[in-house]
Hints:
By secondary structure, this protein is mainly beta.
Amino acid sequence: MATRARWLLAGLVLLLGAEAAAKDTACTYGTNCLCDRLKKTSDPLYNPNVIFCEDFENPVLNNGDNYVRGVNGKGDGWAQKYGPPSDGCLDLSQPSGVGLRDEGAEGRQPWSCFNVVQENACEVESDCVFEGTSSLAFKFKPGDTGGIVGRGAFSGGNTRDVGITIALKVTRNYVSPKDPGNHGPAAKMDEWGNLDQCIMGCATYNAGNPSWPFAAGMKTFTSNPNPVVLRGQGEWDGVSGYRFGPKSADYDFTRDWGKGNWGCLQIKWTGWGTNSATATYWFNGKEILKMQNFNMTTLRDNAGGIGGFSFNSYFNGADGTQSGYTGSTMAYRVEDNLVVTRGDPVSCQAIGFTQSGAPTLGTPGQPTLIP
Ligand SMILES: [Ca+2]
Ligand SMILES: [Ca+2]
Ligand SMILES: [Ca+2]
């Protein structure tokens, strides 16, 4: 290679090295994947506020297929880090005993309820990975509720200020709770705190809701937290719950996201547990929800802040409770680059999205927050 070309290449590498992680770019676990970069002080992406990061690049998270029934007897890599899965995600037809039923919960086994997937080599579609070499795919199997597949803990324990950024996708064959004629089912997103704080989007709250899947709910208040809702809508359930979500003018699944597309969700809470908490949500960089003066002083669970979350994909059945996923073929919800900070959420660009264009507002609407 000519000297001049080498210099140009070196310059290009330097330029690229200064940029954020890029969608569909391979990386080497432990070296230059997103979570490696966020904690490396010499990296432009370094962020000392990160208290949880998962890019699903650790190869041991992807070893569920190695389980051989009756032979192995040890939990797989996912189960050791985040497991075991619980409720609807456990296949009770598998052998009972410690560490057995959760083995192979990850992978392509018929009883597996999720799969750490690789590009062009997964069970549904081909754009399986957002960034790096692997993503997390929750499986929606016909008639199966799915559920919690593991639990992540924040370093440093509870926090009252939390920023969340995540890349999300549902496959094109996914049957959404908002699809016509399918208003009964609803699905949960990942759950925060001790499960009572379903702040990313929650089951029956989002049944039939245009703001699916981000119609959310919190429980265990003894009185109405009564926030000032500056964008979106919220309501007290009169008992112990407060539910909230975007308005159609600001977010509509079909218009602003759509099946088969990757989207970037960012969430920021401050002052959790105080009398003046705030919450702001953005989708693809556009503000979709904003609440202030959220009085959380009567919150019973997680009053001191939140310290972790559960990976979840619980799907209420057509009966609204537990008859499971209503689609006729297995579908995925896929997640990648989940970053949690004790402060501002990292940018969508930092986790691999390109700068989004100017937001377009749709026709105002009034989605119903069904309990
Ligand atoms: Ca990844
Ligand atoms: Ca796998
Ligand atoms: Ca991809």
